[in-house]
Every structure is written in C-alpha cells, then in structure tokens.
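Exam prep: given the inputs below (a chain plus magnesium ion), describe the expected output before reading on.
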Amino acid sequence: ATPTALMVGTGRAAKMGILIKNGEVLERVNDIDTVVFDKTGTITVGKPAVTDIIGDADQVLRVAASLEAASEHPLAAAITARATKDKRDIPVAADFKAVEGKGVQATVDGKQAFVGNTKLLQDYQISADLQSKMVELQNEAKTVVLVGRAGAVIGLIAIQDAPKSTSKEAIASLHARGLKTVMLTGDNERVARAIADQVGIDDVVADVLPGDKADHIKQLQETNKVAFVGDGINDAPALTQADVGIAMGSGTDIAIESGGIVLVKNDLRDVDTALALSKKTFNRIK
Ligand code: ADP
Ligand code: MG
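Solution:
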C-alpha cells in the first residue's frame, strides 16, 4: 500500500475509536489467522461481584475482606465491596503478601490466613462437600476463591463477571472470516470453559500463571499468525509478543503502551473492524 493509503486506513480507524500505532501494524493485521483473548476485562466486563458465600458467611467474608483490603486484584475489589455493603467490621491484616496468579496471604487476628485458588492452598484439605460445591459454582461460570485460616479452609466465595454484551457477536464475526479464537486466562479451566461457551470461543487455555501468557502466544506462533487482545498488567508481555497486540482502552497504562492497536470503545467487535480496514487497505491497493 502507498503511504497515503496507510494514512487513510489508520485515519479511518482512529475516527472509529481504533488507534493503530503505524502502517506496519495495520499491515500485520491482514495476516492474522488466530485471535487470542484474555478473559477478565477483555471478554468480560471486568466488574466482578460476589454471588455466593459458602461456610459461616460472617467469618468467611470478614477474613477474606481483611486479606483483600491491601490487594489491587479485581477479585479483591469484589470481596471488599461486598463486605462494605454488608457493613462488616474488617480486622486490619498484617504481613500482607500477594502471590501472583494464586491469591493473597496475611496474618488476620493473629493467625495465618489465605484467600486464593487451589494452587495457593495446595497443602490444605478441602472437604468433599466444599470440593463439590466449588465445582458446581465453577460450572456456573463463577470464579471461586478458597478462604483459609490457621491451617483450615473455612469457606468459599464465588465471584461472577459477566461477558460484555457484544463479545458473542464479536467472536462470531471472527469465525465468519475463518479465524480461530482462543481464551488465555489465569482462571480455572471450568470457569474459563463456561465463559468460552457463553460467547462461542473455540479453545481454552486456563490456569496460566501471569508470567507464562507470552510463552503460550509464542507457542501458537510456531504455526499461526497471532493477535492477542488484553487489558491487564500481566497481559503486557503477551501483547508485545503477539504479531499484533490489541489493548483495551480501559486497560492498564502498560497494556496500552504494549499494544500496537488500542480499542478506545472497549468493544471486541472492533477487532473485526480493524481486520476489515486492513483488508481494504492492503488488498485493494498493491
Ligand atoms: P486473570 O488471567 O483472570 O487476570 P490472574 O492471573 O490475575 O487471572 O489470577 C488468576 C487466579 O488467581 C484468580 O482466578 C484467582 O483464583 C487467583 N487470585 C489472584 N489474585 C487473587 C486475589 N487477590 N484474591 C483471590 N484470588 C486471587
Ligand atoms: Mg484482564
């Protein structure tokens, strides 16, 4: 394409809220055959809310909210918001420590306490009851965190984050173009599969530690031309690694800086719009 055609293409995109860093990015979009999506905040709204508390609800929420008060994770926001809404008295935790992709730990009421996934609470016994309840909630597309204190799991908290209203249509339009879609997430396999089914995504790669997202993209790139769509701090390396990194406008600064494309409207249908523009720019004028 001529420099003028590139300017026209990126200019048109910008008017629609699709910021494309340069003509080279627009050109690479034309070759993409696989689109990989982060889950939280990308496919879903990114405003998780607590739906179920299993166990002694007062105690479970009190301990969890104490732990999460110092965390910046979206799940933490959901838990502290629920505690505030229920007017719980939250003890101040000491020795707070966040464990990437797993959860948080701290001392609450003088006892070691944890909130996170089964990877964090690996050494804990989970009763058959709690185990089956956890599976049930996960199959309902809810993220489940375990709450532990003084060596025992005291309960579960289920947190729901609904897909954006346009995600399903966005995925369908990519499939209509013959592209493959993949979800890449740190969340549990069952939750990931449930959300993927709701929006029609082909493949799921779940339980991925934050540091491993870029490696999964690299692996896909051995056989495919890959776009990665994400919003979080932990998505930045994958956004850089992908043939085309697409960041949500609502995303963290580092995600936006790492993306070759920014979707200002946070609407996944704009991935397809970018593809259409690239095709128009590169297939018409050669
Ligand atoms: P995502 O790919 O959805 O952004 P993360 O890597 O941030 O996932 O987190 C993966 C999983 O780690 C979460 O689904 C949750 O089980 C657990 N986790 C991480 N941070 C926290 C936290 N602050 N509180 C509870 N659980 C957490
Ligand atoms: Mg995210």
